């Protein structure tokens, strides 16, 4: 067997070698210009696929960051709104104490009522606060329209009870602003668990000033009636009108029965009664309305003045409870804001790790690339020199 070597073959091999070296140098030039080791996917298919996956994870982290910013904005607005609402309730509490002054004239009470009405309007405006993007803070998931409307003096809630959750880091969710039904409605009266009230037909001068559980844990949730049999004696009856306790009354001293503690001041009349049992719920707007109605009560008689004082004491308890409810809502929102800060740290740490991995996959080692470029340049120059010399040679010269 013999091998045949022709001038054309040598020529083709030289051209092919120079083109290969030129292509390699062009690729190195692209790498040096972009600073990227992977210019096209074919440079390293495995690394390229891995890099695309890391890019996708980084994009997801970026979107989670946007989610966190939106949630942080809404929770921050909720905090500011509830702070203002609490200031309004503090003013309501001041006005209630002021209105409880027996020296206050009817005209003075009318002025207080007008301010209370103004506070109610301000509270309604706060309850309909938007987040700056046209969405209402306290509407729950139905935040496209104002959650609270006023008709014939009555405030109605039109939102829902859904509190959305927002993912702010992989597997980490925070709660959005609370629905208005939980913030401004469904507020427990009394001390939040038990409440008490004077009977409408009381004729004495006794005023209920406090109600609570006695700490023994023996209250079973039933309702009881404290009924005075004289100015200094009383019976306690349950819902079936069965006497479950008796005692002697002294103004300002606690009366303890069936796990409950009641404090009454003043002189009762025989037949006067006070009921105690589970606290009901009332919205903050109705609490203000009830206070306004209390200030409009007829106080021309001693019984009327006592009834008003009992109603004002109940309002003081209810306003304090509403204020406490707003504070609880602010605390819950603060906890969510803390979670957002923690999630930001987690996202940042994850992003740094991913970007470091991407850098190892994609970023060019300049020293190595420049060295390779110089080597390929020398090889190309050598190939060009050989090709130039080869052009002046012929196999026919060897057989002359």
TrEMBL record:
InterPro entries: Flagell_FlgL, Flagellin, Flagellin_N. It comes from Stenotrophomonas terrae. Residues 5-141 form the Flagellin N-terminal domain. It is found in: Bacterial flagellum; Secreted. This is Flagellar hook protein FlgL. Belongs to the bacterial flagellin family. Residues 54-81 form a coiled coil. Keywords: Bacterial flagellum, Cell projection, Cilium, Coiled coil, Flagellum, Secreted.
